[in-house]
Amino acid sequence: MKISRINHIGIAVNSLAAGTSIWTELLGLAMTGSETVAEQKVTTGFFPVGASEVELLEPTGPESPIAQFIAKKGEGIHHLAFEVEDLEGALNELKDKGVRLIDEHPRTGAGGARIAFIHPKQTGGVLIELCEHPHNH
Ligand code: ZN
């Protein structure tokens, strides 16, 4: 597979509003967009940093995987997202290597991206998202 860049770093927060003030007031970043992804039960906020972004993830309810993550580990870094050129190909390559995946097939993430997660047990405890943006190659 070919990873072209870190697309974003996902950070779990209880409150997007409280999280936003940290990133804007302390660090001077600007939120350029916010989107609720119902399928993943999260509301995301994007803070561009060069070619990458910080992505805050607020749970939409207690059943959200982000709520469960915060309950277990507290707020903080949740996942690292790498941009790949060919997501299907990357997933097939990992499957061929016997790597356990959370998503065997791409699903839709924020911004219309196609995304898939690798199981963190395979990657030293780091939850890795692979993503492909149709107009970003
Ligand atoms: Zn992500």
- What general outline do the C-alpha atoms trace? globular
Task: Assign the CATH architecture.
Answer: Roll
Count the helices. How many?
3
Top-tier CATH class: Alpha Beta
Give the proportion of residues in helices. 10-25%
What does the radius of gyration come to? 15 Å
Tell me briefly what this model is.
An eight-stranded mixed sheet has the order 2-3-4-1-5-8-7-6.
What can you see in these coordinates?
- The chain is α+β, with helices and mostly antiparallel strands.
- It has one domain: 2,3-Dihydroxybiphenyl 1,2-Dioxygenase, domain 1.
- It is 22% helix and 38% strand.
- It has three helices and eight strands.
- Strands 2-3-4-1-5-8-7-6 form an eight-stranded mixed beta sheet.
- The longest helix is centred in the N-terminal third of the chain and has 11 residues.
- The chain is globular and about 45 Å long.
- The model has no long low-confidence stretch (mean pLDDT 93).
- Bound molecules: zinc ion.
- The site of zinc ion (ZN) has 6 residues, from strand 1 and strand 5.
Can you tag this structure with a few keywords?
single chain, 137 residues, alpha+beta, 2,3-Dihydroxybiphenyl 1,2-Dioxygenase, domain 1, eight-stranded mixed sheet, 3 helices, binds zinc ion
